Amino acid sequence: MSSSIVGMAFSALVCVGLGYFFLVTRGALIANTFVPRAQDRFHVYWVYSNMGLIKFSDRKTWVAAVLLFQYDRLVDRVVSEIKRASVKGKTVLMTSCAFGDVMPKVVKTLIRGGAEHICITDLINNELIHAGKKLKDFQGKFDLAEADATCMPNEDGTVDINLIFFLFHELPDASKALAFSEAARLTAPGGKLIIAEFHRPRKRIMRMLGRLYFTVFEPFALSMWGRYDPVHCLESMGGWTCERATYFFGNFQVVTATKSA
Ligand SMILES: C[S@@+](CC[C@H](N)C(=O)[O-])C[C@H]1O[C@@H](n2cnc3c(N)ncnc32)[C@H](O)[C@@H]1O
What we know:
The protein is of the alpha/beta class. The chain has one domain (63-259): Vaccinia Virus protein VP39 (Rossmann fold, 3-Layer(aba) Sandwich). The protein is 44% helix and 19% strand. It contains 10 helices and 7 strands. Strands 3-2-1-4-5-7-6 form a 7-stranded mixed beta sheet, with helices on both faces. α8 (173-186) links the parallel β4 and β5 (187-198). α5 runs parallel beside α6 (102-113) and α8 crosses α10. The model has no long low-confidence stretch (mean pLDDT 93). S-adenosylmethionine binds at residues 44, 48, 63, 96-100, 122-124, 127, 148-150, 165-167, 170-171, 175.
């Protein structure tokens, strides 16, 4: 009797969790087609635009669950790639905010390493306000700026390291292409572009489950497995050397791309 109550409670919890996740991701995309919204942000999930939802949803366990509990491994790789790039005196950009502790860990690493200028950008002002609160221990040591990854305000070749953490899969394909060319444009010769993203899994069963997940929740993500794979995109532009580490049967990747000097 008690085990069936626990089972029912657990099932109800899973259904509520999935329902909430659907509502704030795919549900938002559906609703955005009916509610008038600026063209440049119709793809943004409510979970990143509404302050209440941002505060409620920015929990590391939830983000970790979406990334199949690989979040810490991915963040560790990003941090070690930043350290490897040696940041002393460099200009570093993080193109778009992210949930969990990736921003505090990255900013701490950059400050310790002596980065000259650190800037975090995002399309949504509420995300920047939230980021500022999360990074209050480092106040005055970094800048926040509203900017669209598809048309950045930075001059050509002025950023030494640009980190893009799970942004591309949320952009419509035309925006992905623009964001790749903007990231390439603003990176300095010899500079690094570090991209954490979904990757086409090696196992067939994982590809089937991944396809189902993306179709239901994150419809723009599937093209990351093919046409908008970061290594494919950067190498086809020419002038980039890419190193890729994959995680969890190939489901995720961290790409470190170096622009020719
Ligand atoms: C980088 S993704 C992070 C997703 C991931 N699930 C996480 O939180 O770790 C989400 C961020 O991208 C931002 N964003 C969406 N479209 C953007 C664009 N065109 N330019 C800049 N930021 C954008 C959203 O406002 C949001 O803050």
